[in-house]
Amino acid sequence: MNPNDIEKSLLAHSENGKHVSPILPEDIKNYLIDIDGTICDDIPNEEPERMLTAELYPDALVTLNKWFDEGHVIYFFTSRTEAHREVTEAWLKIHGFKYHGIIFGKPRGGNYHWIDNHLVQATRYRGKFTELIEKEVTVQVFDDGHHD
C-alpha cells in the first residue's frame, strides 16, 4: 500500500452529526515502530557513525514486512534527528524493510504516555517480535464517567 492508497482507504467519520478526522478500516493497523533497540542495536544519536552498521534484529524484519504485505501501515517513529535521515534510510534499504515513512524527532527518554482522540495500543518491545496476543493489563485513563 503506497501513501495514496492509505489516503484512499480512510473512511469518513462523524460524531454528533459533524465530520471529524477520518479513520482506517478496522482490519488495517497503523504501526508506529521505534528503530534503536527495537529493530536493531540501540545506537544513541551522539554516535551516528555506528548507525549504518547496527546489527539487525531478523525477527523484526520478517514481522514488519509481513504486516506491510498484509496491507497495514508501517511508519518508523524514532528519536533520531533529521540529520540522521540519510543513514537511517540507507540502513533500512540495505536490510530490505518495507515501510511507508519515518517520523524523526520522537522525544528521548522513554516513559511515554500518548494521549490521542483515537484508540492507541502500546506494545513494549522486549527482545523478540512475535505474533501479537491479547493480554489484560492495567492502564491509566482519563475519568470520563464511562466504565468500559
Instruction: Report Rg.
Output: 17 Å
Tell me the span between the first and last alpha carbons.
34 Å
Order of SSEs: HEEEHEHE
Strand order of the largest sheet: 3-4-5
Q: Provide the β-strand percentage band.
A: 15-25%
Gross geometry? globular
Short description:
With 148 residues, the protein is of the alpha/beta class. The chain contains three helices and five strands, in the order αβββαβαβ.
Description:
The chain is α/β, with parallel strands linked by helices and 148 residues long. Helices cover 20% and strands 16% of the residues. It has 3 helices and 5 strands. The strands form 2 sheets. The chain has a 3-stranded parallel beta sheet. α3 links the parallel β4 and β5. It is globular, with a radius of gyration of 17 Å. The two termini are 34 Å apart. The relative contact order is 0.16. The mean pLDDT is 90.
Reconstruct the topology from this structure:
Blueprint (H helix, E strand, L loop, with lengths): L2 H7 L1 E5 L2 E6 L6 E4 L24 H12 L3 E5 L7 H11 L5 E3 L45
Parallel strand pairs: 3-4, 4-5
Antiparallel strand pairs: 1-2
List keywords for this structure.
148 residues, alpha/beta, 3 helices, 16% strand
